[in-house]
Amino acid sequence: MILKDIIDIIESAASLSTQAEWDNSGLQIGHRDAEIASVLLCTDVTEAVIDEAISRRCQLVLSHHPLLFHPLSTIQGLTFQERVAEKAIRHNIAIYSSHTPMDVYRRGISAQMAEQLGIQNYQPLTPEGYGVIGNLPAPLQLEELLCQVKERFRPAAIRYTRPTGEKISRVACGGGACAEFLETAISQGAEAFISSDFRHHEFLQADGRIMVLDIGHFESEQFVKQIFLSLLAEAPLQLYTAEADKSPVLAYS
């Protein structure tokens, strides 16, 4: 299959026209006319992931986070980005990333979070499409919600604030760093907001108005691989989910 045709399938759902100004989604390395038979799906393009792509003889790595957010001034193997770029070029491996376009895709990252918790009738949290909000199948007490989040997302740790009541029904989800939408979640009646990268003052900002659950950046976006699998399910490709795709953040307790 030609790389251009694979890109067309991805962008038919998550158009590059929807990416944030600061983002660098799209084809990072490779030629659009390259022949692709095997694809490795991941959240982050790390050295371990590119080594797995080499061992599996994949011609394409399809990721959520771009390898290159900023131009490389040199390629000397001094950073992981330089080493990955060099290996990919040497082994004729293309890299394509769908970051913020996959965030705002209606069945994208945040929708996958909602699906994991069985949230019903969820709708976009923001007009741009970041985040979703909906209702749990049944109200949950604090421990029940924490247990479900731990089971479905497998975070190294959950940082959270106290709930506003005895039970939680209405929940907002935001893949990646969505703390900026905290007030939006509150204004739409969310009793809990599951996302990542909350800072200390944002936990304070919750101020008893909403329960904040920070599950970790990677953990909130890990199901992007399932989205890629779904989009490419009928394509004549061998698809692999990267076993080396793991959160770089560990927790000690």
Core attributes:
Udp-n-acetylmuramoylalanyl-d-glutamate--2,6- Diaminopimelate Ligase, Chain: A, domain 1; 253 residues; 11 strands; elongated; five-stranded mixed beta sheet; six-stranded mixed beta sheet; 10 helices; 2 domains; alpha/beta
Topology of this structure?
Blueprint: H1 3-13, E1 26-29, E2 38-42, H2 47-55, E3 60-63, H3 80-90, E4 94-97, H4 100-104, H5 109-116, E5 120-124, E6 132-141, H6 142-153, E7 159-160, E8 167-177, H7 182-187, E9 192-196, H8 200-206, E10 211-214, H9 217-221, H10 224-231, E11 238-241
Parallel strand pairs: 2-3, 2-11, 3-4, 8-9, 9-10
Antiparallel strand pairs: 1-4, 5-6, 6-8, 7-10
Helix pairs in contact: 2-3
Beta-strand fraction estimate: 15-25%
**The biggest beta sheet, please?**
6 strands, mixed
Q: How many DSSP E strands?
A: 11
Name the quaternary structure.
single chain
- Poorly predicted parts: none
Helix content: 25-40%
- In the CATH scheme, the class of the largest domain would be Alpha Beta
